[in-house]
Inverse folding.
């Protein structure tokens, strides 16, 4: 690790101010950033911990029924507190990493990082959620912009994610054997006005919506509706854990399982 | 089971108290006054010419004490190799130097370019990054077949080519060709035994210390064999006589072979401590371990089995490429030859067996022994091949094996070794019971009802433990002795200290070795303390590897204890005014046969050190004996393993449903520890079969360089095991009748898993003969879909 300054503000406003400094960086749960620092792959001048900001922690329900998760909420908290209102989201959070990771890692950190194999981005995208920052509200469809790329500006803080709660949903993850991130993860969410399907782990351009599957499921929300379907292998990740063809195939399999498991 | 903690008792491991309460004393727990820290600058290219290493700016950075480069080591020896293999033409292998710090060239990712010694670790790292290095990239030699092409780039410019040796062993060409020309059926298999990273829980650490007042150097290191490090480093690298060099290997958190070898980092810290008159500490990070610990396996093999019309094995021929990596580590040349070729006959009486191994230099991290070392590679290819033969012939895989078992002992194989004893039908009988083979078809139907393919896989294994005897090993090219030593020191008040040359790094010696002595003396094991791991405290010993500790080290302890008993009886005879021949030792009491005379163990030990009433004219005071034990042969543990898997046909994911192991380890000292050794070994074998894979790209970059991509087995990847070692044929040539159990699990398990996966796929109508390990979901799916 290189040397850095450290600050732990208690309000979003103070955090934003601290992050205004050159090369300052937000620290969520540190589950991605700390290993990066240890490997000397990042050199922030200052770390601004968001862990002392009460206003961005916790799970609550908005008047319109949406589930609001504070940007600084840990995976463990989502796993327990979203269970009643959005069980598929809670199950996703409860299956990230191990207990240590879940008790430190936050939803804000996960979607700010936007790892192409991370779980949360698929939930945000499939739910058509709104990412709320200290500056604005960003629709999920505009938020994820490729591998580790998001719509966030330098120093912008994810303060909340608002999830419209679907009638039925499920996230199924097929684990990469080493990291246990998603080799392919599929989040299926059925709303009154249609079905959204988001796929993580598979594509070279990060989380994406599988529109053919959405169309098929919107007219018939059943696993059979996806029989024989898989997205094109073109543009899928090919690495030591699986070829593009394999990933494309898995998307179909895992999507069918997600539909079958949706509740 | 004896309740007294002697031989055969499942005594809980006494060392676990300190390990489980965080009170272990590992090398990194040692901190010396005035200690400085080392950071190595390592190559980030696999092959290149070092044009410039400019340390100027880095040397001026805060906290930097000194920066060392290859130039500082020009007069210093290289890291030696401990085994010279002679090739098929009688020529010695090609043996390149391995400098402590790179000279002229870097040859693998992680090769050491420079070392910074600084006041703090962070300062050392900062300065290492500031060293300016210019490297002219050279083409990397990664693929073994390409490395042997005539125009391949040479890893070592001074060698003829990238071939370390071309070794042929076993039956002559005429015998082999005769067998294959007569064959009614020949089964052929090409396979890869993939490269693995050992990944012991504790990364390597070295601390050098130098005392100018006595001119004595001390190295604290994570080693399986401190005396071997003292000999290799003192005599071949740094030129320090052994009486001025102490090597301490305190608690060591797992070795699995990768901590056998003498590493450059050890020599560096010892050298730098003397140069700087400061203790110098290096602690490997996990990332560094991936590119600097010797790796394991990495064979590419073609194997052929000739059978006659009655399905008798009549000939076996193998052709293997074995990857040495960029340099020869301590026993690397022996692994694919004498630890692999000699086991190629397996449990079978194939009359003609010939093994050809070509060892190859590549621009990859060096490869050496890893749990099983050569024997897993031999077992895997042979047992996969037999499975394939059974399928081709429509034979039952168990019956085919049974038909060809060696049944008469001693048995001399065509690959030079002599199995002293065994009962392969016996272990197979046990296996058939504990694996509930009879119930398999029902279990398969249940799986199918759930949409899964179920497979059953079986294999046998034989291995050789306790490499020996020393003069034979010397003839085969080993540059060391392979005895073990023990000193048993009885104290005046009756307690004992047993000093062993074996090293415990997880095996539980501190519990099981005292059980042997306690059993012999009839005293409580808590009266016995085991000392190991410090060359200043123990007799010259060869350490722990190759499952040798109990069979060789335990035998040395046995012999030393025999001497103790003999002398104690003399003292007891004197005390009881009886004839020595009439003295018996039972339950810690000496008595005279046929009388009521007796003296306690403690009376005798006290007399030995307070010799007032003592036969001083006949024997010396004191009660301390040393023995060196050099076995007359290897021991040959063997067994039969079975695995059941479920394959998800939609994803290719394999789940292990059950695993059964029937082993013959001869006599058992502590059955609980043996169970644990087998469990751990099978876990590693399952890791190799399903998960682990060390992969370089064509430029020599390591793709699986962290746990994000290198899949270690986790608890939920392995089942509860059924382990049984009741079928016992005691070793005929060591006093304990023991064989060794440390590697069996890792040797015996991979073929059972892969055989089971192939069986599952076949049951689903997929004509799949073979899948290379790791049998990952992606590979299974590809095999099912010919993709
Ligand atoms: C062993 C292990 C296993 C894991 N397994 C999984 C898995 O299976 N699935 C999965 O999805 N993830 C997994 N993760 C990643 C985990 O979910 C992390 O918690 C997450 O990626 C990052 O969250 P964090 O709060 O720790 O962020 P940090 O590591 O603190 O930060 C990550 C990045 O986000 C920025 N950031 C943090 N918070 C905010 C915010 N509120 N607003 C704006 N920017 C912010 C930081 O500046 C940094 O750039 C795993 C991690 C580990 C260590």
């Amino acid at each position: 690790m290189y040397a850095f300054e450290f600050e732990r503000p208690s309000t979003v406003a103070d955090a934003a101010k601290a992050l205004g400094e050159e090369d300052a960086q937000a620290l969520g749960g540190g589950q991605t950033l700390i290993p990066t620092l240890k490997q000397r792959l990042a050199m922030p001048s200052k770390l601004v911990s968001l862990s002392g900001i009460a206003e961005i922690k916790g799970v609550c329900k908005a008047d319109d029924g949406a589930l609001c998760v504070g940007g600084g909420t840990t995976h463990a908290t989502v796993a327990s507190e979203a269970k009643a209102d959005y069980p598929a989201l809670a199950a996703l959070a409860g299956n990230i990493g191990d207990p240590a990771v879940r008790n430190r890692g936050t939803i804000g950190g996960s979607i700010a990082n936007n790892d192409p194999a991370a779980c949360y981005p698929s939930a945000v995208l499939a739910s058509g959620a709104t990412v709320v920052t200290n500056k604005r509200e960003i629709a999920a469809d505009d938020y994820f912009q490729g591998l580790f790329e998001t719509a966030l500006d330098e120093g912008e803080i994810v303060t909340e994610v608002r999830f419209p709660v679907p009638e039925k949903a499920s996230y199924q993850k097929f684990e990469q054997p080493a990291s246990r991130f998603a080799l392919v993860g599929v989040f299926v969410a059925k709303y009154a006005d249609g079905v959204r399907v988001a796929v993580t782990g598979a594509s070279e351009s990060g989380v994406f919506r599988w529109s053919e599957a959405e169309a098929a499921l919107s007219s018939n929300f059943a696993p059979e509706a996806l029989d024989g379907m898989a997205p094109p292998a073109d543009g899928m990740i090919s690495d030591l854990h699986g070829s593009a063809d394999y990933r494309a195939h898995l998307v179909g399999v895992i999507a069918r399982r997600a539909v079958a498991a949706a509740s | 089971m004896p309740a007294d903690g002697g031989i055969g008792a499942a005594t809980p491991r006494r060392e676990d108290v300190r390990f489980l309460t965080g009170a272990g004393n590992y090398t990194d727990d040692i901190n010396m006054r005035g200690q400085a820290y080392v950071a190595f600058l390592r190559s980030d290219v696999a092959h290149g010419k070092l044009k410039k290493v400019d340390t100027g700016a880095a040397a001026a950075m805060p906290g930097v004490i000194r920066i060392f480069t290859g130039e500082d080591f020009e007069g210093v020896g290289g890291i030696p190799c401990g085994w010279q293999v002679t090739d098929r033409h009688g020529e010695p292998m090609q043996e390149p130097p391995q400098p402590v710090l790179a000279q002229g060239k870097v040859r693998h990712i992680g090769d050491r370019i420079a070392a910074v010694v600084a006041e703090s670790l962070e300062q050392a790292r900062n300065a290492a990054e500031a060293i300016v290095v210019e490297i002219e990239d050279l083409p990397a030699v990664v693929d073994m077949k390409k490395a042997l092409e005539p125009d391949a780039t040479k890893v070592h410019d001074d060698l003829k080519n990238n071939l370390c040796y071309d070794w042929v062993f076993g039956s002559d060409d005429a015998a082999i060709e005769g067998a294959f020309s007569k064959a009614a059926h020949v089964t052929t298999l090409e396979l890869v035994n993939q490269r693995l990273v050992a990944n012991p829980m504790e990364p390597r650490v070295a601390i050098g210390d130098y005392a100018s007042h006595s001119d004595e150097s001390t190295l604290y290191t994570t080693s399986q064999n401190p005396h071997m490090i003292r000999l290799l480093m003192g005599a071949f690298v740094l030129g320090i006589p052994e009486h001025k060099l102490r090597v301490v290997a305190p608690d060591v958190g797992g070795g699995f072979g990768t901590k056998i070898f003498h590493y450059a980092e050890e020599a560096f810290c010892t050298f730098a401590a003397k140069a700087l008159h400061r203790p110098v500490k290096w602690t490997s990070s996990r990332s560094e371990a991936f590119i600097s610990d010797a790796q394991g396996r990495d064979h590419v093999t073609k194997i052929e089995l000739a059978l006659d019309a009655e399905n008798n094995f009549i000939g076996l021929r193998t052709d293997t490429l074995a990857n040495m990596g960029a340099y020869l580590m301590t026993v690397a040349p022996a692994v694919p030859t004498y630890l692999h070729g000699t086991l190629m006959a397996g449990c079978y009486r194939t009359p003609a067996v010939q093994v050809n191994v070509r060892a190859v230099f590549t621009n990859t991290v060096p490869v050496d022994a890893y749990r099983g070392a050569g024997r897993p590679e031999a077992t895997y290819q042979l047992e996969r091949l037999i499975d394939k033969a059974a399928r081709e012939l429509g034979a039952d895989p168990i019956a085919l094996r049974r038909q060809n078992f060696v049944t008469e002992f001693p048995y001399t194989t065509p690959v030079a070794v002599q199995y002293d004893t065994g009962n392969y039908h016996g272990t197979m009988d046990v296996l058939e019971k504990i694996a509930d083979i009879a119930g398999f078809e029902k279990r398969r139907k249940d799986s199918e009802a759930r949409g899964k393919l179920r497979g059953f896989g079986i294999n046998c294994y034989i291995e050789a433990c306790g490499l020996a005897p020393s003069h034979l090993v010397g003839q085969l090219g080993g540059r060391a002795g392979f005895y073990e030593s023990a000193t048993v020191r009885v104290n005046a008040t009756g307690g004992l200290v047993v000093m062993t040359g074996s090293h415990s790094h997880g095996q539980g010696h501190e519990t099981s070795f005292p059980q042997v002595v306690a059993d012999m003396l009839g005293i409580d094991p808590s009266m016995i303390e085991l000392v190991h791991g410090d060359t200043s405290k123990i007799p010259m010993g060869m350490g722990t590897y190759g499952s040798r500790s109990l069979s060789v080290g335990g035998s040395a302890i046995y012999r030393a204890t025999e001497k103790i008993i003999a002398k104690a009886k003399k003292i007891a005879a004197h005390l009881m005014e009886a004839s020595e021949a009439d003295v018996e030792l039972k339950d810690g009491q000496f008595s005279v046969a046929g009388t009521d005379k007796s003296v306690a163990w403690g009376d005798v030990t006290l007399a030995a050190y307070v010799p007032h009433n003592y036969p001083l004219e006949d024997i010396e005071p004191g009660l301390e004996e040393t023995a060196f034990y050099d076995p007359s042969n290897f021991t040959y543990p063997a067994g039969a393993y079975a695995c059941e898997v479920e394959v998800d046909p939609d994803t290719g994911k394999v789940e292990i449903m059950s695993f059964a192991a029937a082993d013959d380890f001869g006599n058992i000292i502590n059955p609980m520890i043996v169970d644990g050794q087998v469990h751990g070994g099978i876990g590693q074998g399952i890791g190799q079969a399903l998960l682990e894979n060390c992969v370089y790209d064509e430029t020599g970059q390591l793709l699986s360089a962290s746990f994000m991509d290198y899949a270690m087995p986790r608890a939920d990847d392995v089942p509860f095991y059924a382990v049984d070692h009741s079928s016992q044929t005691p070793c005929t040539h060591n006093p304990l009748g023991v064989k060794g159990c440390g590697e069996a699990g890792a040797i015996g398990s991979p073929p059972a898993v892969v055989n089971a996966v192939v069986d599952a796929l076949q049951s689903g109508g997929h004509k799949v003969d073979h899948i290379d390990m790791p049998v990952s979901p992606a590979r299974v799916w590809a095999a099912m879909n010919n993709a």
Residues A 25-33, 50, 71-72, 96-97, 101, 104-106, 108-110, 112-113, 115, 118-120, 157-158, 180-181 surround flavin-adenine dinucleotide (CB under 6 Å). The mean pLDDT of chain B is 97. Chain B has 19 helices and 28 strands.
